[in-house]
Amino acid sequence: MELLYTGKTKNVFKLEDGHYLLKFKDDVTGENGVFDPGANTVGLTIDGAGLAGLHLTSYFYSKLNEQGVPTHYVDANFNDATMTVKPATVFGKGLEVICRFKAVGSFLRRYGAYVKEGQNLDSFVEVTIKDDDRLDPPISEDALAMLDLLTHEEYAILKQRTIEIAKFVAAELAKKGLTLYDIKLEFGRDAQTNEILLIDEISGGNMRAYKGEQYIEPLELEKIMLAE
């Protein structure tokens, strides 16, 4: 295998058959030792976080594939904490798409003069550029098109799929008595067909889930969701 990229929470390898292998790590995003799925830096290491993230990612991606939602997921190897995926290209240097159901995190920090913590939001979608030096700035649909990152038509697909996927995840969590506050997704273009695909992961590391007013940590979320 050829190591292509060392990321914050995963390493990416190229396989001989053209697929890619994602190796999940125990590093999670946050600041000053506090987990934050919206942060753009690694804040701490949690033993077992990588495998827990892979378990949940495999769970959600398998269900989405069954429903015909385009994803890059092929299969997972839990013994090695790895996931095999189809090749995909990202938009520019990468985008993150957030769907918000409650006002928390960076949304609350930006708009706190106009919104209360935990206030309901109507599947609010926002896109940010993956740029650590500039703290992953939000970007509008028009700016995305003007900078040739994606077309207006692609943005419409991106937004629709983000809401559909986020609502699916929220419904799965609700079955366990949990509430999804927000979730961060990533998309790319299929390297063969150019179709927009869901990529990266869906795990406790990129969402905020609550039981009542209690925040559920990533490892606990995996245990709750996958309990028989």
How would you characterize this protein structure?
- The protein is an alpha+beta fold.
- It has helices at residues 49-66, 105-111, 141-146, 152-174, 218-226, and strands at 2-6, 10-14, 20-24, 27-31, 34-35, 42-45, 73-77, 82-85, 88-90, 95-102, 120-129, 138-139, 179-190, 196-199, 207-211, 214-215.
- The strands form 3 sheets. Strands 9, 10, 11, 12, 13, 14, 15 and 16 form an 8-stranded antiparallel β-sheet that branches.
- The radius of gyration is 17 Å and the shape is globular.
Label this structure with key terms.
8-stranded antiparallel β-sheet, 228 residues, 16 strands, single chain
Q: Secondary-structure element sequence?
A: EEEEEEHEEEEHEEHHEEEEH
Low-confidence stretches: none
Total number of β-strand segments? Answer: 16
Strand content: 35-45%
Radius of gyration: 17 Å
Whole-Å distance between the termini?
36 Å
**Helix content estimate:** 25-40%
Derived structural class: alpha+beta
Oligomeric state of the chains? single chain
SS element count, helices? 5
Q: What overall geometry do the principal axes of the alpha carbons give?
A: globular
Quick one: biggest sheet?
8 strands, antiparallel
Give the integer mean of the pLDDT values.
Answer: 93
How would you concisely characterize the structure shown here?
The protein has 228 residues and is of the alpha+beta class. The protein is 28% helix and 36% strand.
